[in-house]
Specification:
heterotrimer; A mainly alpha (210); B mainly alpha (226); C alpha+beta (207); A: 210 residues; mainly alpha; 9 helices; globular; B: 226 residues; two-stranded antiparallel sheet; 70% helix; 2% strand
């Protein structure tokens, strides 16, 4: 149990996907102008991340990795021969994510049309959100988590992403009322803000050595 | 300027994918801890971009609009996997440094963006040129950021102390080398150390903000001057 | 629905072509990749045992649960051209600051009969560049002199030390002999612990 909590905190704060791992930057700078949209985007991303993590966990452990648990290997190959399909991970994962995002879109269109409108073009762009593909790759390839840590890690990553997004939205909303030098207005000041946030998050480093 | 040359050059400055279009931010900030990594990623991503642009342009008449995005994704992901395997076999050290970000090339918005906005509509030659121009633009942007971060953050350039790196440039190196070494000795004598923050995440964000601010300043000046 | 069918077929054909291209590439690169992965470890074994020209598995039938990792330590004995024992090499793993650090440790009995470090090599790490990653940084002047054989500055301190000495000066002022890296105490501690516990476990295996 303690290990799961550590994974959660590590993914959300210590190894924050946006400010430390550099994943999910496009939506981070694109959707962070208003706090409400940021929260909505964060929720959508957590949803996709968790679903994608579960499905990719299944695909990695039962279809791609060679060994006795590989379904294809058991069905089609004679005893003793192993089937290593790990090189198909990129193609498989991204197709899974694209499909899940499509499903999320349809789900939101029916159940929460206002959020669907607010997110606009950024909803299908969750497919190209490196944080989602990143969390799937880290779960399976880098850390080889079993199912429970995979879920916790995905939730943590999504929470960290949402946290960074909401913080950034809050700051940018405030910045609207202030005089930013013309040269820095818009993205330059957003990047510098992100840099200062990243320095703050550096304070978490070393908290958990995983 | 002839149209073909235009397709190539627009990606270098005017429609630079990183500084003008703000695409492909994740690898730009993550792998540019050194000049070599920046150039490596720029070329790897570029290879995928050019190949996928060509294939998608080749197949553009047979790809039905309804399923074009999944097909783009399959094509791009395949090239990414091919580049991933080739790099692991031929340049294992670079492959290890770039790590997670090689498979992440598949979600690099530059590639999907160019496929949708360009390769699906234009001919093969133009698509190839567009891909090459974008590659040059992407690579020099990554090289700039990587170079600055490496020098300020570690005092090295391309893995060597910066004065040695400058000294090893053919021809110019004979003049630059000794000057750089003198500078380096003076800095060392004063006790100036590299700023580690530059190779940590905050350094990347701040440098990017400063660079973009500078480019925006130049753009505003140009527009005001008209 | 003929249109649905047509769309599905096209998608299927594209996926099949992709699968074909990928498995081709995989087959043509898989040997080189496997060779690269193995090469790192066997090169490292020879590197941490200066003077050794060949290695062979040591005490293949004995294996003891290593303190540092879940897998037992597999030790290799290194000999030189005249079949003289140079020492033993084994791989250890320790949790570093941002991931596991895999180290190849070489040790041999010194003149007093105690096991001392003959060499170390980092096989894998994800430490922070400029901080923990400095454990692998070779002084430039050394690169010019020794090339591939150059030992990183931080790791030079380990050569010749015995288990009792392998502690950080910062944390164990009485028995520590290792200077930690600037602003990278956790990485330094992890590396030191890996080497020390590796040798302690090896003592068990070699009994």
């Amino acid at each position: 149990m303690k290990e799961l909590i550590l994974i959660l905190i590590s993914a959300a704060l210590v190894n924050n996907f946006v400010l430390v791992r550099f994943l999910g930057l496009c939506p981070f700078f694109g959707v962070s102008k208003k706090i409400e949209t940021a929260i909505g985007m964060g929720m959508a991303v957590i949803f996709v991340m968790v679903l994608a993590s579960i499905v990719t966990w299944g695909i990695w452990n039962f279809v791609l990795v060679p060994g006795p648990s590989n379904i294809l290997q058991q069905l089609f190959l004679p005893e003793g021969q192993s089937l290593d399909l790990t090189y198909l991970k990129t193609v498989a994962y991204i197709l899974v994510i694209a499909s899940l995002v499509q499903l999320t879109e349809m789900f939101l269109m029916k159940n929460n049309p206002s959020l669907y409108q607010a997110l606009g073009v950024f909803l299908p762009l969750i497919t190209t959100n490196c944080a989602v593909l990143g969390v799937a790759l880290i779960n399976t390839q880098d850390k080889n988590y079993s199912l429970a840590p995979t879920l916790v890690h995905a939730v943590g990553a999504g929470l960290g992403f949402t946290l960074a997004l909401v913080l950034m939205a809050g700051i940018r909303e405030k910045l609207e009322d202030h005089n930013v030098p013309k040269a820095l207005d818009g993205f330059p000041i957003a990047f510098i803000t992100a840099g200062l946030m990243a320095i703050a998050f550096l304070g978490f480093s070393g908290m958990i050595t995983d | 300027m002839s149209s073909a040359a235009n397709e190539f050059t627009k990606g270098i400055v005017r429609e630079n994918p990183v500084f003008a279009l703000l695409l492909g931010l994740c690898p730009t900030l993550a792998v540019t801890t050194s000049l070599k990594n920046g150039v490596g990623m720029g070329l790897a991503g570029g290879a995928v971009l050019i190949c996928s642009n060509i294939v998608i342009s080749l197949l553009r008449k047979v790809i039905p609009p309804k399923i074009r995005i999944p097909i783009f994704i399959v094509v791009i992901a395949s090239f990414v996997t091919i580049i991933d395997l080739l790099m692991e076999a031929q340049v294992p050290d670079l492959h290890k440094s770039l790590g997670l970000f090689i498979p992440l090339i598949v979600v690099n918005c530059i590639i999907l963006g160019r496929a949708e906005a360009y390769a699906y509509k234009e001919g093969i030659l133009n698509s190839a040129l567009d891909g090459m121009g974008m590659t040059v633009g992407f690579t020099w942007a990554l090289a700039l950021i990587g170079g600055i971060r490496e020098i300020l953050g570690t005092g090295n350039l391309w893995g060597m102390p910066w004065n040695v790196a400058l000294g090893s440039i053919p021809v110019l190196g004979n003049i630059l080398g000794p000057i750089a070494t003198t500078f380096s000795d003076i800095l060392g004598a004063i006790g100036i150390q590299p700023a580690i923050l530059m190779i940590l995440p905050p350094g990347a964000f701040i440098l990017m903000g400063v660079l973009m601010g500078w480019f925006q300043h130049r753009k505003l000046k140009m527009e005001a001057g008209l | 629905m003929p249109e649905m069918l047509k769309l599905t077929l096209i998608l299927l054909v594209v996926c099949l072509c992709s699968a074909g291209a990928l498995s081709q590439t995989y087959n043509s690169t898989k040997e080189k990749i496997a060779k690269n992965r193995k090469a790192t470890e066997s090169i490292a074994r020879l590197a941490v045992l200066p003077g050794a020209t060949s290695v062979s598995i040591f005490n293949a039938d004995k294996s003891v649960e290593s303190k540092t990792s879940d897998s037992a330590i597999k030790a290799f004995a290194g000999t030189d051209d005249s079949k003289k024992q140079i020492g033993y090499a084994f791989k250890v793993s320790e949790k570093g600051f941002s991931g596991d650090i895999d180290v190849m440790v070489g040790c041999a009995k010194n003149k007093k009969g105690l096991l001392a470090v003959t060499g170390t090599r980092v096989l894998r790490h994800s430490e922070t560049p400029g901080l923990g990653a400095e454990m692998n940084t070779v002084a430039y002047s050394d690169t010019q002199k020794f090339g591939d054989k150059a030992v990183p500055k931080f790791q030079k301190q380990f050569i010749g030390k015995t288990v009792e000495q392998l502690y950080l000066k910062k944390l164990d002022p009485k028995k520590g002999t290792i200077d930690s890296m600037t602003a990278a105490t956790i990485s330094s501690k992890a590396f030191t612990k890996a080497v020390r516990e590796g040798i302690e476990t090896f003592k068990e295996v070699s009994k």
